[in-house]
Amino acid sequence: MANLKEFMTKDHRHCDDTFAAMEQKANSEGLAGAKELYAEMKEEMEHHFQMEERVMFPAFEEKTGMTEGPTQMRSLIKEVGEAIARDNKERFFGLTETMMIMLQQHNMKEEQMLYTMVQQHLSADADQLISMMESMVTQ
Ligand SMILES: [Fe+2]
Fold first, then answer.
1. Distance from the CA of 64 to the center of ligand 1, in angstroms?
2. Which of 34, 69, 90, 136 could form a disulfide linkage to 26, CB 3.0–4.6 angstroms apart?
3. Cα 85 to ligand 1 centre (Å)
4. Structural domain of residue 121, as residue ranges?
C-alpha cells in the first residue's frame, strides 16, 4: 500500500531541487536565465500546497479534527517573480534566502511530525488520496 509520508516527502525533495536549480541558474546566467526555472518552481510548489490544502489536510481534518494552516510561501514566491521581472539581483537573492529558510521550516515541520500523523490516521485511504493528488491540476 502507498505511503502518504513517503509520497509527500518525495515531493518536498522535488520542489527543493527545482528551487536550488533556479538559484544556481540565477548565479551563473543572471535573472533572465532563471525565468523558466522560476515558472517551474512556482508551479511545483503551488501544486504541492494544493495537494496539501485540497486533498490531504481536509481528509486529515475530517478524520482527526486537527487543522493545518496554509503557508506564507505564496507571497514570497510572487515577490521572487517580481524581482526577476525587474532584473533586481540583490532583491532576488535576499528573497530566495528568506524563502530557503521558510522552505526548510515547512519541510521539517511536516516531515518530522505532520506527515507521520497523516499516514497513521489515513493509511486506509492512502492509495485513493495519493491518486487524487497525482491527478490534481493546479488551479
Ligand atoms: Fe509540504
1. 19
2. 34
3. 27
4. 4-135
